[in-house]
Amino acid sequence: MHPDLPHSQLKIRRVRLDTGRENVVVISRQSKALRAEIFRGFSRVELRLNGKVLLATLLITDDDTLAAQDEIGLSEPAFRRFAEPVGTLVAVTPATPPESLEAVRAKIRGRTLSQAEIGAIINDLAHYRYSDMEIAAFLIGSASFITSDELLALTGAMAQAGTQLVWPDPVVVDKHCIGGIPGNRTSMVVVPIVAAHGLPIPKTSSRAITSPAGTADTMEVLARVNVGVEEMKAIVSSCNGCLIWGGHVNLSPADDVLISVERPLSLDTREQMVASIMSKKIAAGSTHLLIDIPVGPTAKVTGAVEAMRLRKLFEFVGDRFGRTVEVITTDGRQPIGNGIGPVLEANDVMAVLGNDKDAPRDLREKSLRLAAHLLEYDPKLRGGAGYARARELLDSGAALKQMQKIIDAQGPSTCSTELGSLSFDIKAAHDGTVSAIDCLRLNRLARTAGAPLDKGAGIRLFKKIGDHVEQGEPLYRVYAFDQPEHDLAASAAAAGNGYAVDGHDALPSKTAS
Amino acid sequence: MHPDLPHSQLKIRRVRLDTGRENVVVISRQSKALRAEIFRGFSRVELRLNGKVLLATLLITDDDTLAAQDEIGLSEPAFRRFAEPVGTLVAVTPATPPESLEAVRAKIRGRTLSQAEIGAIINDLAHYRYSDMEIAAFLIGSASFITSDELLALTGAMAQAGTQLVWPDPVVVDKHCIGGIPGNRTSMVVVPIVAAHGLPIPKTSSRAITSPAGTADTMEVLARVNVGVEEMKAIVSSCNGCLIWGGHVNLSPADDVLISVERPLSLDTREQMVASIMSKKIAAGSTHLLIDIPVGPTAKVTGAVEAMRLRKLFEFVGDRFGRTVEVITTDGRQPIGNGIGPVLEANDVMAVLGNDKDAPRDLREKSLRLAAHLLEYDPKLRGGAGYARARELLDSGAALKQMQKIIDAQGPSTCSTELGSLSFDIKAAHDGTVSAIDCLRLNRLARTAGAPLDKGAGIRLFKKIGDHVEQGEPLYRVYAFDQPEHDLAASAAAAGNGYAVDGHDALPSKTAS
Predict the structure, then answer these.
(1) In terms of domains, do B105 and B64 share one?
(2) I need a surface site. Which of A141, A281, B71, B424 has the fewest CB within 10 A?
(3) How far B233 CA sits from the closest chain A CA (Å)?
(4) Same domain for A343 and A386?
């Protein structure tokens, strides 16, 4: 399509500009190459060298230090992905748009897409051939309506786009929570219990995106979590389980691309959520999967009908891919555990595993319940014996021992476990009983205080729903490291502390986010 | 929402990076401000100073020359729009997303939007508060379905978002072609005829975006077209008409924003087209509007049914806004006139106005027909007398004289009128009759040769549909200035010259684009 013009050869320069996910390149307004594209203002271009092709969005510069007349500046992700040294001559032409964009436009017009079309879209997404705008076009085009077949095709294509793990065991279990509840670090209790029993549970987790901590952030307080595929296999082989960051093993990279656009647009459809979660779990090679859907007024799912529709979608996709999927709804009215933020949550987890008398009972009970479900997948275990077995492994210290083994296998953490040196307490305005806790508000407050960037920032809860409080008694304590974060969190908490006591206070509202 | 942190004050730096329409800012990865946003990778931020607010997309840099630790680098559009000197301290916080985005999400979920919601969206668009992704979300959310009321609200809001011209005359006429046909510079013949008659016709035109020339590009060969509002009024007052670039008078700026995203996504819906054209015409203050819809196998509209649906939409919107709208379909099977490219088209126009014996008859006839329709809007003119009056004004030289007056009023052109010094001819492969011409292919060929950047690049046609040709006789000549463009155009023409002769050649296909 585009025979090379002699002057479309440009020298690679590196531009230290982090453009997130999108490939962005810069050429000089004086450049002899791509005159029409410079004139038009916006365009996509194509870099080619030895069969390697990179599609990128073109920006124009008048600054020679970004790109001189004979140069093309590659921003960080483009430079990393094209992987050629500075100064290399590269052919630059107007981009031939990925063919799969035709299917995206058909979807926008309302047509149902074939498996092959969806496969092509996902393949192009996973290879960073779409601009952010084009990703948005696909997401929004499929946000209003996708068929069951499209959902299956999407999930399958996403699962195949990256690393696909294969395990030698007939039963490989996994658990996943759809998120939204502060604390709630059940995986870090469940994995050692299940692994101590002997079932393989190769757990990958995410880092916090909009919450004050993801499981990977919290585990990082105790051990290294940036673990690659081969190392992961070795750890699971020796310990039956792991607790690592999923981003390092490249499961479902197309999902990461989609999320990078869903998030800024606050798009959140059931189908995308199911395709996202199931594609990662299928790629991770688990055969039996437990999905936890917390339900509560400030949780992601606020009612039983919504939870059931989501459950059926998970079951449908699981069945079609030959995975055993069990979906349970749990109490999502308030945080699980007493800590919010990586260090505080890690403390909760170790207290539960260590059978400390002050360990949060809700985290212990929920973890035992989830572990019980997973243990029942062991054909050798007598039906109904899962809970007793889980409790036995926890109470005996076997789970704690297994956790130490996993921590040793993953390697030492490099994070400080210190709590923020600045703190303030939020106190009850009057006597009464705690009647509601706003999960969204506490999440936001913990982030404002510095979590998860500051591992030791966050919130320690003293009271939960149903607890009696007296006027002036602390409801929770906020930890921060720097005065500005401390002050910002204090003023945010003063504007609304997220607790309703006895009906004297208004119920926290979902719109408070 | 975001009380200022002391360290969220950053010094403005100018980053000479042209990011097109979108506001983009850069901060250092070492910056103490916006730590959470740096960590998340993608976010929107807000710059505030003395009540002025700018929303922008945040990029991160490791290069101190783009932004040091205490600086924020503003890319070109952001720097221009914020309009504060380098070094100014500005408060930078995470952005509060525009409230109207909630309506965009509702639209994506399938809800119909109110007039107020659409008004808020358009207002935010026109003030550059949306990211490119957010604009795409709105466009695609409304691409699948918008109601008549939504279309009216959209058109009205867009018309009100920028300059709104008001004329003292009871009848102000205008014409608009939906485009797609090479050559076809009827406005430059129609405006002088109508103006010579005495009807006001304040014509604004676009520059080429994806075509080899817009009316503004072609007029620029003859006169200055970057004319502001006040000057435009003076010109229309003295000459009854003008032929200027619409981009300089800021009619419907929201439309320009939408087009900047529609174009790279190749989104093209009837409703958006109607809202786009009608909003500009309503803002331009015309009372009587003639819309030209060329129909042909390689035109934008390929059949009568499609043309009729579009016509009804134009009529509907025109009626509701109290404008007289007349829609005519014209022959869109081939280029109008013999030239493609600014200089070649300007030559055609001046030949028609000058009544040269070699002037292209099709351009003359189509222009007379359109002018006739417009002249009939003059209440003083006898019904049915429009065509004769138009011909009289053209044949007598009155139209040419009026054109000279308009050119003098707008001021001299600074462009060269020379044709490209390199050229090649495309010749008939055998004897026969020209049976089809591919408009898309010729448009692309003229662009490849350098138009509209090189005003004198383009194509001169020797044969049109129905003409007899002999083997080896030239069909057209391609002009370019530089060898690379010449060679590229030659190889493109060799791969398919866009002409079908006698049925010996395959009919050009629409997919050839």
Answers:
(1) no
(2) B424
(3) 29
(4) yes
